[in-house]
Fold:
Amino acid sequence: MVVAEISRVIRLLTQSQPSIQRATVEKYFTPSASFTHPLCRTGSYEGSRWLIWCIYRWYKIMSPRIEISIDGVAYDEKNRTLYVDIHQVFRIWVIPFYSAPVSLTTVLKLIRDPPLAPQPSYSTPINPNESWHATLHRTTTSSEKPLYYIQSQNDLYQVNELLKFFSQFGLLSGLLMLWQFIATALCVVGATVFWPVSWVEQNVVGGNKERSIVEAARG
Structure:
């Protein structure tokens, strides 16, 4: 794939038919790709890509109709890393009224491989009458753009976002948010009460690049 196609690839992984979902995993992930999530992980070894397909398949079985939006994509070309901000609404069909609107950042480590054959392009407009199969297997004659494959996927959630999977109406995430505000207030108290420590660091020690407080006390 080319980097600009990542939004299309994510939608194929999360919203397509089972056969297309599997073909997408096999096409864009390396055979030893790894998947890391707060609730599961695969590790990286030859054949670990099969586990990634199983995770995506179970994900789609639990929530057959997933609402997903790509809020932003950033590419670190030097380290070949994609950062994708995603918002999704996850619903488990066997639990009435269950809904988990969550935000996450997916970090994709890529490896570059020279094009050996025509590759599908999803950057051009999609024909609304075209099937998922035709979309996946559409090819382009251009080989100028570098092709990348996903070596690892790491889904990062804030704790309050992760808790939305386990409680309805945001109860647990609301309690966590309350604790976070309390912790911020405690930080203000600590910074106020222990201001002499900052004064010593500023006027005696000089910060991390200089001596520690203990070394300064020793002379």
